[in-house]
C-alpha cells in the first residue's frame, strides 16, 4: 500500500469521528454560509451559532475556502439582512416558547381539574352510599315498629260464645255495651286486671266449662289485651 493510499484511509477514518456539523460543513463547503449552517441545524442562539461556525471554518476548512468563507461572514454581519435574519429567528423562538409554556400550563390545569372532578365524584358516591344505607336502616326500623304495633293490637276477630253469637268489638266500650245484661254479675279486680264473676255458677256446663266461666275468660282476655295496648 502506497503512502498516498494510507493517508487517504486515515483521513476518511478521522472524518468519521468528527461531529455531525463539522462533517456537514466539510461536505458542503462550496455552498456553505452562516445562513445555510444555522437553518440546517435550526440553531436559535446567535452568539453560539456565529462562534461555532467560525471555529469550524478556521479548523476544518482548507485555507483557500477558509478565506472566502470568513470574508463572506464579515460582510454579512455588516448588513441589515443579518439583523433581520436573527430578528425573525428570535420571533419564531418566542412563539415556540410561548406555545411550549402554554401547553405545560394547560396540561397542569387539566390534571388539576381532573383530580378535582375525581375527588368530587368519590365524595358524592360515598355520600350516596351512606344515604342509601341510612334509608335502608330507617325502612327496617319502620318495619319493626309496624310489626310491633300490629302484634300489640287486640284480636278483633269474632269469638264464638257457645250460643252462636260473635263479639263485633274488643274495646272496653264495646264490651260494656255487649255485656250490659250481665254487668251486674262481674266486678273488676285491680290486682289481676281481670273481671271476676260475682255470682256462683248454676252448675250448667258444656264440655267441662260453664257458660259464665266461658264469658269470664272471654272478658278477661279482652280487658288484658286492651290494657296492654293502651299502656
From TrEMBL:
Region Disordered, residue ranges: 120-213
Bias kind Polar residues: ranges: 146-155
Listed Low complexity bias regions: 124-133
Protein's UniProt name: Uncharacterized protein
Amino acid at each position: 500500500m502506497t503512502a498516498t493510499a494510507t493517508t487517504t484511509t486515515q483521513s476518511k477514518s478521522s472524518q468519521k469521528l468528527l461531529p455531525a456539523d463539522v462533517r456537514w460543513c466539510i461536505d458542503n463547503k462550496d455552498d456553505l454560509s452562516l445562513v445555510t449552517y444555522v437553518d440546517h441545524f435550526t440553531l436559535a442562539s446567535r452568539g453560539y451559532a456565529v462562534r461555532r461556525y467560525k471555529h469550524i471554518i478556521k479548523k476544518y476548512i482548507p485555507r483557500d475556502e477558509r478565506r472566502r468563507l470568513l470574508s463572506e461572514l464579515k460582510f454579512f454581519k455588516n448588513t441589515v439582512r443579518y439583523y433581520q435574519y436573527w430578528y425573525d429567528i428570535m420571533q419564531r423562538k418566542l412563539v415556540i416558547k410561548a406555545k411550549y409554556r402554554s401547553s405545560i400550563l394547560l396540561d397542569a390545569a387539566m390534571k388539576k381539574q381532573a383530580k378535582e372532578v375525581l375527588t368530587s365524584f368519590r365524595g358524592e358516591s360515598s355520600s350516596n352510599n351512606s344515604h342509601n344505607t341510612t334509608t335502608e336502616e330507617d325502612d327496617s326500623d319502620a318495619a319493626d315498629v309496624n310489626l310491633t304495633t300490629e302484634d300489640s293490637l287486640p284480636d278483633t276477630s269474632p269469638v264464638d260464645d257457645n250460643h252462636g253469637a260473635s263479639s263485633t268489638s274488643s274495646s272496653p266500650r264495646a264490651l260494656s255495651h255487649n255485656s250490659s245484661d250481665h254487668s251486674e254479675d262481674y266486678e273488676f279486680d285491680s290486682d289481676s286486671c281481670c273481671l271476676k264473676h260475682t255470682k256462683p255458677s248454676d252448675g250448667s256446663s258444656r264440655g267441662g266449662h260453664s257458660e259464665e266461666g266461658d264469658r269470664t275468660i272471654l272478658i278477661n282476655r279482652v280487658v288484658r289485651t286492651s290494657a296492654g295496648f293502651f299502656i
